[in-house]
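re the bet — no i am not wrong, look at it urself. input seq straight from the record:
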Amino acid sequence: MVGVRLGLSEHIKDCNAIFSLVLDEEDVNSIREAAGKGKDLLKVIGDCGDEYRRAWVLIIAISN
């Protein structure tokens, strides 16, 4: 979701503009390169909200 604020709908036209975005091969390669540098957050902190259930995982992730 891009630019979403629940309950506000004044920017529907602006948000729909994302669907006209076209990525070329260079864009895709740049995204893949950047994504390859990151950690798998699902393995580090779990699913959405899991960081609140397992706070000790965040401490380990930050310290590494």
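see?? Residues 12-63 form one domain. told u. also The two ends are 30 Å apart (CA to CA). so pay up
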